[in-house]
Amino acid sequence: MELVDLSSWEDFEERLKALTSTPPQLEDGAPLGYVSPFLFRGQANHCWRLTTTLERYIQERMSVKRYYRTIHAAKPQIETFTGADWSILTPPEYEEWLAKQDMVYLRHHGFPSPLLDWTRSPYVAAYFAFVGASEAGERVAIFAFREHAGAGKGWIKKQPHIETLGPYVRSHKRHFLQQSEYSICLVYDADTWFFANHEAVCGDAQSGQDILWKFTLPVSEKLKVLRMLDGFNLNSFSLFASEEALMETMALRELYFRANR
After folding, report:
1. Long-range contacts for 7-15 (Cβ within 8 Å, ≥24 apart)?
2. What is the pTM (predicted TM-score) of this model?
3. Whole-angstrom distance, CA of residue 21 vs CA of residue 127
4. How many other CB atoms sit within 10 Å of the CB of residue 178?
5. I need a surface site. Which of 51, 244, 249, 257 has the fewest CB within 10 A?
6. How far apart are the first and last CA of the chain?
7. Series of mean pLDDT values for 10-residue runs along the chain (261 residues)
8. Residue spans per domain, the chain
9. Does residue 4 sit in helix, strand or coil?
């Protein structure tokens, strides 16, 4: 992972332009294969690691088999409350399909998930980084991730690897509003698939896969960035489309922007 500390939003936009406009180059000069688009993630504290909600909830290594049995056990209660039939595989079928689309549904509704959520938009990522940042904090973080950088993709047994799900998954409408994508980190050990931490995988620009950059910016840029994003109608209401999000957006405009003109 490459760490880049920046002093202003303008510095970030310059680095972002350079990063996204420069095609990857392999060290040995080999021809490039598939190059995936960038994904971005914003975090309100630069000290926070890239962890899924499942990692933060149980803080221990969990097998895919155990997790799938857990969500399968919750299936009747979810169906009872929502009134909808949730068609997922039975636990014996989990090896053929890891139920990644079902994990997206759980992730959006707060159930601890092994998925890490990203966005295709660096500006959506910036919004999430700054909107939750404390004025007393020091720096926020915006991550940029590229899974494929032209050298192909492979994995080794007992070593974790990352898979992205792409944009075409069934989920809540917020998935489309936020340009969301998801990744999952897995490791095969002792004849069992386990979830692993994303930062254990990410390499440098010459690795050809799973490349991660971490840009940090001072929290003092919060007002400027949020006001600029709101000017492009990028705010809580446009990203969540709920009554609560409308109230949050109105409060931001009337109590924060107006008071800091």
Report:
1. 7/217, 7/218, 8/217, 8/218, 8/221, 9/126, 9/217, 9/221, 9/224, 9/225, 9/228, 11/217, 12/126, 12/142, 12/215, 12/217, 15/215
2. 0.84
3. 22
4. 21
5. 244
6. 38
7. 95 95 71 84 94 90 85 81 72 54 54 88 98 85 89 74 75 81 87 86 66 94 96 95 94 91 79
8. 2-260
9. strand
